[in-house]
Amino acid sequence: MKITDVRVHMLQSPLAQPFAFSQGWVDRRSATLVEVSTDAGITGWGEAFAQGLEPPQVAAAAIEHALRPLVVGADPLEVEVLWHRMYHQTRDYGRKGAVVAAISAIDIALWDIAGKHYGQPVHRLLGGAFRRSVQPYATGFYRIRGQGEAARLAEEALAHFEAGFRLMKVKLGYGVDDDIAVIRAVARAVEGRGVTLMVDTNHAYGRAEALRLGHVLDEMDMRWYEEPVAPEDVDGYCELRAKLRTPIAGGENEHTLYGFRELLGRHAVDVAQPDIGSCGGITGARHIVALAQAHGIEVNPHVWGSAVAQAASLQLIAALPVTHHSVFAREPVLEYDRSSHPFRRDLVAEPIDLRDGRVQIPQGPGLGIELRADTLQRFRIA
User: Fold this and answer.
1) How far is CA 220 from CA 95, 191, 196, 198, 342, in A?
2) Residue 192 — φ and ψ, nearest 5°?
3) Which label site among 114, 124, 192, 300 has the fewest CB atoms less than 10 Å from its CB?
4) Catalytic positions, written as ranges
5) Do 87 and 158 sit in the same domain of this protein?
6) Residue 16, CA distances (Å) to 126, 306, 347, 357 in order
7) Could you tell me the CATH number of the domain that includes residue 312?
8) What CATH number is associated with residue 101?
9) pLDDT tens readout for residues 167-225
10) What is the pLDDT of residue 344?
11) 334: domain range?
12) 3-state secondary structure of 99
């Protein structure tokens, strides 16, 4: 079997209601999808994580001009070989960011092809499923005005609860005083309801502000405090982890086992969060998981993007071993973005849904999803 073509699909859709996270305002949804074709008639799908406010054209250019020539004509089942070929050939101008996200997209598509070739879900090829379903956590609490929205966000927490979520991640990073007002209002709203909270500031702060917020979070029983400082500030991560009781999480802006080597080796985080669409794909995630296991650090993937990234992340989570084994070991959870996103439900024939508080791992071959051509056509950027 040989790869005959690599095609990029850039999708974009304006949002009726723009919203903000700590790094800026989001007025549209974007996705960079890749379709890898073979001479056996098997097609695989992957996705490059359009990080933050990144235009989808950035990773698309890397796929089309740098990576496509490296894989066309190759055997798609040689996934590890092709990962190293792509990484080493782009090392001088890659290693981080959109280039590794582009590698991730092709790698995910290769695993999708392998699963379809063998008639097995990807998690079976990864060694089997530790779990058949996963508990999701609602990501949301974005701002539509900026500051002073604590009451509205407390109501949002109740809406997530009514939808069946018992884990919720609150987006902060809009000024420490405003953050404190928000997290206290949200905590009061769900008090006594069996809800566990986590927070994410998307590296909005320096160490002093992050520490000030962290001392307030220590008053609550948080699952984690995510991206408290800039991803480059590993010393800052270490300092906050040493001074705070709340577990520190990070890694969505880190890439490959080479990037995670310092973060894990210095025990800068309690929870490592590689994103499958930017850390190096499924192959890159396998490398990182093994490294994290060796350092005794929990892995809980960050999940963003379209239904393709969701499905690929579910396959990884199914095959993810717990780090600290016990009879009642803590299981990984699935990030489930609840904000407006047309490339989630509309992109696949069977959307990924919450049922009885759980999300089922797709059992079909490959990623276990079927993309809808009409949705691709409707949102495709020329």
Assistant:
1) 38, 11, 10, 10, 34
2) 80, 5
3) 192
4) 302
5) no
6) 40, 18, 19, 29
7) 3.20.20.120
8) 3.30.390.10
9) 999 999 999 999 999 999 999 999 999 999 999 999 999 999 999 999 999 999 999 99
10) 86
11) 124-360
12) helix
